[in-house]
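Problem statement: downstream parser choked on a complex file, so we are re-checking the raw output for the 2,5-dihydroxybenzoic acid run. The parser issue turned out to be on our end (a line-ending mismatch), but while we're here, posting the original submission so the record is complete.
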Amino acid sequence: MATDTYDQFREDMLGRANVADTPELVDFYHDLESQHAGALWTVANKIEPWEPESDSVPVLWEYDRLRDHVLRALKLVSPEQAGRRVVYLANPGRTDVTAAVGWLYTGLQVMGPGEVASSHRHSASALRFIMEGSGAFTNVDGHKMTLGRNDFVLTPNGTWHEHGVAEDGSVCIWQDGLDIPLMNALEANFYEVHPDLQQAVSFPIDDSTSTWGSPGLKPAGETWSKRYSPLLKYEWEPTYEALCRLEKVSDGSPYDGIHMDYVNPFTGGPPMSTMGASMQLLRPGEHTKAHREVGSFVYQCAKGHGHSIIGGKRFDWKEKDIFVVPSWMWHEHVNGSGSEDACLFSFHDLPTMRALGLYRVEGLAENDGYQPLAS
Ligand code: GTQ
């Protein structure tokens, strides 16, 4: 070993486990195993990495390739049989759990005109981002909402929820995002089917958006004490308009362009306690700088086209494509158009990271802030 390398090795291993096997040690390890025990130094460097090491890999799912498979499910199973008729997205780095990235799940749910999926509730928090079709609805604790393209909807944990499509609607597909893997990792996941299978509509249609969805306004004296947002549906048009207005007066973030969080209008904080969501606008030709965050991200392109460089690899996206960024992985985004803006919807587990005091973010210092592309 050259001296430099040896010195570097010594420095890297200082204070770290560095024990070579001997016949006595190997015997010792076997004996410990028989006692359902082990020597920490054999696993320490793996279980206590210098920094987060995700088993998840960056992946992009092209909607054009998935869509036909999703539509096939429509003919193969009914919502009654399936409970939820969903094609989930599986991260190839994760064979242990049904996860898209980190401790987040995502899937594409499909329903036809006149179909209804039964009402249930669970410890997992859920959200939806509507992709195509007309007439879709969700009922959350009696608040029935009509859903349109690029609308963002909450079904917070513990709330009864069911989905369906109106008789005069068309086949609808939306993206589900849930923290199912997190709930299972925490061994905290309960699940219940509604005793009547369907719940009543107890409030005027879209009342949550009409009550809480006007920018900067709320009904006088109205209060709210639940742990999630009273606004359950965030419509696309006002979201896009908010981004366009911000763009006129702000340079935005060097890492994320014009970037806005969906918030609980009562607190200004995240809409649910474990998961948050954002919409970002990349200006024509914009290429953001690379940064990395403690937290996992699932993106969907809501408008335009472009690419992202994630962990040194390029992923090209266009409308409705979905891709993921694992925790602590460098990522930067590029709008592929020189004349049109591009929008990326994303959901993430930053509220969990922040609540636990784990959130960190770092910008790439080298190479003017841009990742070298892996060959
Ligand atoms: O609609 O409640 O994709 O419970 C996975 C689990 C959707 C839902 C999914 C679920 C749901």
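For whoever reads this later: The longest helix spans residues 63-76.
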